[in-house]
Each structure stands twice: as C-alpha cells, then as structure tokens.
What does this fold into?
Amino acid sequence: MTERRDDAEEREGPVIRDKRRIDPKTGQVRESAEPAPGSTPNAPPAADNDETADLRKQLAERTLDLQRLQAEYSNYRKRVERDRVIVREQALANVLSELLPVLDDIGRAREHDELNGGFKQVAEGLEGTVSKLGLQSFGTPGEPFDPNVHEALMHSYSPDVTEPTAVQILQPGYGIGERVLRPARVAVAEPGGEAEPEPAPEASAAEPDQAEADAAQPQAEATDED
It folds into this structure.
C-alpha cells in the first residue's frame, strides 16, 4: 500500500499555489479571491474613509498656509528692493545736486574759452563721472516751453513762434532718471507782437483848422461894417 501511494504522488507531482499579491506578468495588484470575514466585497471600511478625509483636510490647510507665506515673502522682497532703489536714488540725487554749481562754472568757462590745460582735463573728467552716474542735462533753444522742466525768467512776444517757446537757455537743467534736479531757466516767447501805433486820420487833423477859420470869419465881417 505504501508503495502504491508513493507511486501516485510521483505521478501527480507537487501542487504549487501562487499567493503573490502582484501579478508578475501584468504588474497589477491581484484581488483577493476570499473576502475577509464580516466585510462586504469592494467596500472600504468606514474608519479608513474618515481618516483619509481628515488627512486631505489637513493637507489643504497646510497648502494654503504655505501659499500665504510664499506670497507674503514675495511682497516683502519686492518692498525691500523698491525701498533700496529709492534710497539709492535719493542719496545719488543729493550728491549730484551739490555738484551743479561746479558744472555751471565749467559751462561758463567753456563759453568764454577759458577751459584750458589741467583745468580742462579735470572738468572733462568730472563731467564724464557724473554722466556715468546718470546725470543728464536738458534745455535747447527753440523747444516748446514745458513748465515741468522749464522755469521762465524772461517773457516776450514774437511773431516767429506759434506756441510758447524757450527762445534762450539762461541756465541748463539737470535730471537723473525721471527726477528733475533743477529745471532749465529760460527766456520764453509767445506768439504775437506789440501793436504798432496807428497814424491819426487826416480829417481829425483838419478839423481844428476849419474851426479857427469859422471863428475868424465873423471878426472879419464886423471889421467891414465899421
């Protein structure tokens, strides 16, 4: 009997059951053929659903907090950068404003051909330095008068202009970026001209002579009667 049982097992061979949860061929998770006792197939436990909902709620709150912090930090960086630029421009404007009288002296010396020798080199070096720092001069004869960048020191009328015009630059203006450090001081001419005196009519000039003749005629008649 023992020999027959051994022969039967050798003929049938060993039985192998694949209990792996992941299918090696498809790579997908295999569904359990036997549901757990007391549970409904394909229905997750209620406790798991509550825990998942709570975790999602916490994740949403943390995400909102991070987004709020990121927005606040971004606004802070922009504000600091803007303040830094404003402080730099203000400090630079204060320094360049103190140099404007020196630049005026250099300009007057150049107009009188007195910019020579070492003084010329120093003047050109100073002008180049302030130009690199962003200082710009403005004011050209013939440009329209703009009260934002011009200061009128003289006023006249001219038939050669069609609008208020800066006909003469008495002192150039200076600015840095969009900031005006000093307006250009100019002489302004407006359209028109002084009215020429009209000559008196001839009839008006002849009226006194006629009145004197009329007054003298009665006197002549009285003399003849005497």
